[in-house]
């Protein structure tokens, strides 16, 4: 009795393996009879790739990045944090113009400091006809690079 797809002669074997045409025929026959297992394995591999891709995307987006405006600074001094209603520090209270100028002047007198530049952040909300404009791709970080 001969099994369909198996080699007939030793010439059809290549170093003890089935020829490529025979292997393809066996694979097609296996998929034809067990197509549900094939589809299940394919879906599982696709979901696994999607899960790994999303995990790497979340990980890459969660790394800290230095803003370009302070990238070359050797030292950055932040405003003090203000406690919220639960007495936990949350937002930073911006310094006034006089406070930031006074601090920049004191830092400029320190030996080795080439230049002290105050960089004040502030909340800015775009409005159109008195109503706030929804933030989209044109939204900028608060108080920096404001477009006219």
Report on this model:
By secondary structure, the protein is mostly helical. It has 2 domains: 10-61, no CATH class; 68-132, no CATH class. Helix content is 36%, strand content 7%. It contains 3 helices and 4 strands, in the order H-H-E-E-H-E-E. It has helices at residues 20-33, 35-61, 97-108, and strands at 81-83, 89-92, 127-128, 131-132. Strands 1-2 form a two-stranded antiparallel ribbon. The chain has a two-stranded antiparallel sheet with strand order 3-4. Strand 1 (81-83) and strand 2 (89-92) form a beta hairpin. Helix 1 packs across helix 2. The radius of gyration is 33 Å and the shape is elongated. The mean pLDDT is 77.
In short:
By secondary structure, this protein is mainly alpha-helical. 36% of the residues lie in helices and 7% in strands.
Characterize the main sheet: 2 strands, antiparallel
> What is the straight-line distance between the termini?
86 Å
Structural class designation: mainly alpha
**If you average the pLDDT, what whole number results?**
77
Shape: elongated
Helical residue percent?
25-40%
Unreliable sequence segments: none
User: What is the C-alpha radius of gyration, as a whole number of Å?
Assistant: 33 Å
Write down the domain tally.
2
Give the SSE string: HHEEHEE
Strands across the major sheet, in which order?
Answer: 1-2
Beta-strand percentage range: 5-15%
User: Would you count the extended β strands for me?
Assistant: 4
């Amino acid at each position: 009795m001969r099994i369909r797809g198996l080699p007939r002669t030793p010439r059809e074997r290549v170093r003890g393996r089935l020829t490529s045409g025979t292997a393809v025929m066996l694979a097609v026959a296996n998929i034809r009879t067990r197509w549900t297992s094939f589809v299940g394995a394919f879906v599982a591999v696709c979901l696994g790739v999607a899960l790994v891709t999303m995990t790497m995307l979340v990980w890459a987006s969660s790394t800290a990045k230095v803003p370009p405006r302070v990238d070359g600074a050797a030292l950055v001094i932040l405003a003090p944090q203000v406690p919220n209603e639960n007495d936990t520090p949350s937002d930073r209270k911006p310094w006034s113009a006089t406070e930031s100028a006074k601090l920049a002047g004191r830092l400029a007198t320190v030996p080795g400091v080439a230049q002290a530049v105050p960089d004040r952040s502030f909340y800015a909300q775009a409005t159109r006809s008195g109503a706030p404009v929804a933030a989209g791709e044109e939204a900028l970080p608060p108080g920096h690079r404001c477009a006219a």
